[in-house]
Amino acid sequence: MTVLDTSTVEHSVPPAFRPAELSRMSRWRLASRLARREVRRRPGRTVLITLLIAVPVFAMTVASVIGRTQTMSPDQQYQRNFGASDLRVQVSDTGDASSGAPLSVFSDQELTGLLPKGSIWERSLYGYGTISDATQGRYVPFMDFDLESPMFAGFVEVNAGRAPRSADEIALDADTANGFGVGIGDQLTLVSPAGTWTVTGFVRKVDAFNANFLVFGQFDRERVAPMQRIEQIYITLPPGASISPETATALASHGDLEVRPSVAASIGFGTSFAQSSLNTETLAWGWVVGALALAIVSIIIASAFATSARRQLATIGQLSANGANQRLLRRTLGLQGAWSGAIGSTAGIAVALMTLAGLRGMVDRVIARHLGSYDIAVSDLVVIFTTGVIAATIAALVPARSAARVPVIAALAGRRPLNAVPRRLLPIGIGLFAGGLFMLAVAAAGSTSHSNGNIFAVVAIVGGFGVLAGMCCLTPLTIDFVGRVGAHLSAS
């Protein structure tokens, strides 16, 4: 048989399996199967791309979970400040410090008449001022409530030791303890207020780990000046019970009244705890920053796929010889990026969730407060996963476009012809680079203004993409120029 014969050339692949004769769905399946095979056959490239995709995806996942978890409902905000109570009445001390009379104008009998039957309450003295020993003083708020009472759950916690239970015991935050040079079991002697106490444990506020704070077991109110004392009454209502607007007005008439938002809504009483809305703008900007990071690493990914494409020329030639068109070849090479991106995105999300779960205590210490249970939005994870897959797919499609055009004979021989760099890349690259620098300069100048900050942030992001794209366009020309200069210097 010669090339002049008109008879059909027999292929090693049965006609039923020729790419040119496959249905559209079958072509996608064939391309996907070939792409998966190449991903498995090239573990070095797969590991590199997985790491490059996983790192930005990891950061985006952590930012999404932390951002959503910090969004608290009004009831959650109330509990962070006033524990498990439903009402909190705060009355300043205007009486004689040595009189021994209750600070509050509300006696137990009055509260019994005002509140629903079955209500319970606890009184707590809140003070503030400078406590000092013989050498130093510190401004520290203090309270004398029972830390082991369910009433104060979710407000203050004992993170080491135990709660104070008697008049000669005290618990304080770790920073204040270090400042006075005492630890659990040591004696703390103060000049103001005068006295000696045994440190039984370290405490911290749930919503502010770094806040200075003291808790006395039973505090002698005569040790603190009247103008520095406030009495707080924490009230828990029976299940399903509420108070009337008149009762709320009566409680608020002699002091500052805070009502759990869910209770306040049922009686039409105002509350200082507003609905904490999710800052979707911050989440969106986090996604933009993550997408920009993926765009940067996509340059390396595209280089990895370009290098790998040269090693796949024999496969490309075999597919072309069996009737595969350029679209199928591009699809096969592009799906390698999709599969690699899916692996990297899955790994990044999985590692992020495991890290957040395993390092929960460290996360709380870093942000200096308890986050509560994590709020994981599946929609965010889907967007992050899709972004990683798209970035890797685009990076794979960039070299696939030229690899699919390699002639069959050259591909089967493993040779890829070197095509001339298009001349239009030079003006396009210069334009993108210069335009990006200009936009970055405008964003930098506008960032000094407090208004329209988001607009200048968008300008900065677009300018960064412009500089990045311009550098990519100019890279082939730069390499060619350096090669020419090097050849000239070698010849001379």
SSE layout and pairing:
Layout: H1 24-41, H2 43-69, H3 74-82, E1 87-92, H4 108-114, E2 120-127, E3 130-132, E4 137-139, E5 142-143, E6 156-161, E7 169-172, H5 174-180, E8 187-190, E9 195-205, E10 214-216, E11 229-236, H6 245-252, E12 256-259, H7 261-267, H8 280-311, H9 313-321, H10 326-358, H11 360-367, H12 378-403, H13 408-412, H14 425-446, H15 453-491
Parallel strand pairs: 5-10, 7-9
Antiparallel strand pairs: 1-11, 1-12, 2-5, 2-11, 3-4, 6-9, 7-10, 8-9
The tally of helices reads 15
How much helix is in the residues?
Answer: 40-55%
Order of helices and strands: HHHEHEEEEEEHEEEEHEHHHHHHHHH
Strand content: 5-15%
Radius of gyration: 35 Å
- State the end-to-end distance: 54 Å
Mean pLDDT: 76
CA-based shape: elongated
Low-confidence segments, ≥5 residues, pLDDT <50?
1-17, 95-102
Number of DSSP strands? 12
Major sheet: 10 strands, mixed
What would your notes on this structure say?
52% of the residues lie in helices and 13% in strands. The chain is of the alpha+beta class. The chain has three domains: 29-71 and 280-415, no CATH class; 76-267, no CATH class; 420-486. The strands form two sheets. Strands 1, 2, 5, 6, 7, 8, 9, 10, 11 and 12 form a ten-stranded mixed beta sheet that branches. Strands 3-4 form a two-stranded antiparallel ribbon. Strand 8 (187-190) and strand 9 form a beta hairpin. Residues 1-17 and 95-102 have low confidence and may be disordered.
